[in-house]
């Protein structure tokens, strides 16, 4: 999907979560905040650092998108029920048409510390699919990456 965007000359914005929470796996002090090599930004592709789940809060993402004439966005990344969901909802609320590449996102297994109810935790696929179900229609079109067009 990223290769198609680049080939088409479509705008690409990389978002990086840099948590302020000590001990967070997304905290730059000991966390893992580098881009995976296969999706690393190319020269000229902006990297927008965020501190919260939404890529729009505390960043200039909306202004950058509007500045290049975008009225639609395609979202992919980690994790589906957190940053992907929050950014998708906000993009839709800001008036962007949103496509969400369901097979270019993922979730992690829940754990006893995150479950609000008795009965154990859910597997990553169930968490991912439940998050997508909540976004489908009102906030985004849920599509396979191959059907997301630049």
Report the span from N to C terminus. Answer: 9 Å
Helical stretch tally: 4
The arrangement of helices and strands along the chain is HEEHEHEHE
Count of all domains: 1
Q: Please report the first level of CATH classification, the CATH class.
A: Alpha Beta
Task: Write up this protein.
The protein has four helices and five strands, in the order H-E-E-H-E-H-E-H-E. A three-stranded parallel β-sheet has the order 3-4-5. The mean pLDDT is 92. It is globular, with a radius of gyration of 16 Å.
State the main characteristics.
about 150 residues, about 20% strand, Rossmann fold, alpha/beta, single chain, about 25% helix
List the helices and strands and how they pair.
Blueprint: H1 2-8, E1 14-17, E2 47-50, H2 61-67, E3 72-78, H3 80-93, E4 97-106, H4 124-135, E5 141-143
Parallel strand pairs: 1-2, 3-4, 4-5
Helix pairs in contact: 3-4
Concise overview:
With 150 residues, this protein is an alpha/beta fold.
């Amino acid at each position: 999907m990223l290769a198609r965007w680049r080939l088409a000359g479509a705008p690409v914005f990389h978002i990086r979560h840099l948590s302020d929470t000590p001990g967070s796996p997304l905290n730059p002090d000991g966390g893992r905040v580098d881009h995976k090599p296969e999706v690393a930004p190319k020269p000229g592709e902006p990297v927008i650092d965020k501190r919260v789940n939404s890529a729009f809060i505390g960043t200039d993402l909306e202004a950058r998108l509007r500045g290049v004439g975008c009225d639609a966005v395609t979202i992919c990344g980690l994790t589906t029920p957190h940053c992907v969901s929050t950014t998708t909802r906000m993009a839709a609320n800001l008036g962007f048409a949103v496509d969400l590449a369901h097979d270019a996102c993922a979730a992690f297994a829940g754990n006893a510390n995150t479950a609000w109810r008795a009965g154990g935790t859910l597997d990553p696929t169930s968490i991912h699919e439940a998050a997508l179900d909540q976004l489908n229609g009102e906030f985004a079109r849920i599509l396979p990456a191959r059907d997301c067009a630049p």
